[in-house]
Amino acid sequence: MQIPPVFIDVSLEDQAVELRSYFKGLGAEISEEKSPKGIEDDLHKIIGVCESCFKEGNEAEVELVLNDIVSIMVLIPLERCENIIMAFCEKLSKAPGQKLGMICLRVLWLLFQSLDERSTIRYNVYYHLILIAKQTDQVKSVYQDIDRLKQQFAQCPPSNEQLQKLYRLLHEVLLKSNESEQAAKVMIELLKTYTDKNASHAREDAIRCIVSALADPKTFLLDPLLSLQPVKFLEGELIHDLLDIFVSENLAAYLKFYNDHKEFVTSQGLNHEQNLHKMRLLSFMQLAESTPELSFAVIEKELQLKPDEVEGFIIEVLKTNLVRARMNQSAHTVYVTSTMHRRFGRAQWQQLRDLLYSWKSNLAAVQDGMKHITATQLELINQS
């Protein structure tokens, strides 16, 4: 296959002619002559046929050609190039196969980084990057966390509608990549884009957010969801009742809800056995908050476990780091030293405040003691 030239010290128009000739050689329907309308029309024509080079087994050449196109685009004023960039993104997002998809991901990432941070077109490029990342399972290569994402668009923040569209896609891609914790954070950011005035329109997003949080085996602090306006609009509905149970109720409350609404739980895509497991962990945390010394008998009864399941369950709880405790197997007792609170409200803030003040007082006492010891030693030295 013909190898495209490397464009060095060549005018944009001559680069376009070389690309036209290259794609013509691949059998694309394109003229080798440059357009009388200018370089923008040349690029439009080239991008229109660029998929003709999407052939596996020739990845290095494909990447070189696509990067050549980028090198021309970034030298054209953005106000004359936005439609061309959009067309390029659309073409690359449809590249078939994992290998070609990875190439297109790298090429678009290069384009994204080359664009002025104040340009609105960067949002569109990034959205297509996430589309390709979904196809190639490479979301980590273009998305780190929500704070980094906001920083990338700090100079030109997308509109609320654009953010909502991006967050929905990101949530889907992160879930597909088993990044459930990151997906939950993105969904919460999505719900934050709604105000009191339009929160009622976020019903589907709010339900999706709740279901994702309930299904995530790593998410245990669910209380913050209740303060989101779109979630508040669901009060009185079954999904909100279920969230309330996971926020503050125990295993018995969940079992009653499930027995009354089995079809609803299933219809939301939630797994009853996984729900049971999570509710047992949450119920144990609730017990540990009020009772630092728990007998195996109490755990067995409250969490509806068989006698031979208690020790294994306690070990599993300790592995989560939700609770710090010591198990006395001979005494059939668990001694809890600390636990994560399921709800973090005014009482918990007060408790944290009191703890910090206690630490401060203790440190002051230690400091005073050290000063006294130092003064005594100096006095003895002077006397000698």
TrEMBL record:
It is found in: Cytoplasm. The keyword Cytoplasm applies. Keywords: Cytoplasm, Initiation factor, Protein biosynthesis. Signal peptide: none annotated. One of its GO terms (molecular function) is translation initiation factor activity. Residues 179-341 form the PCI domain. It comes from the Eukaryota. The keyword Lipoprotein does not apply. One of its GO terms (cellular component) is eukaryotic translation initiation factor 3 complex, eIF3m. GO terms for biological process: formation of cytoplasmic translation initiation complex. Component of the eukaryotic translation initiation factor 3 (eIF-3) complex, which is involved in protein synthesis of a specialized repertoire of mRNAs and, together with other initiation factors, stimulates binding of mRNA and methionyl-tRNAi to the 40S ribosome. The eIF-3 complex specifically targets and initiates translation of a subset of mRNAs involved in cell proliferation. This is Eukaryotic translation initiation factor 3 subunit M. It comes from Cryptolaemus montrouzieri.
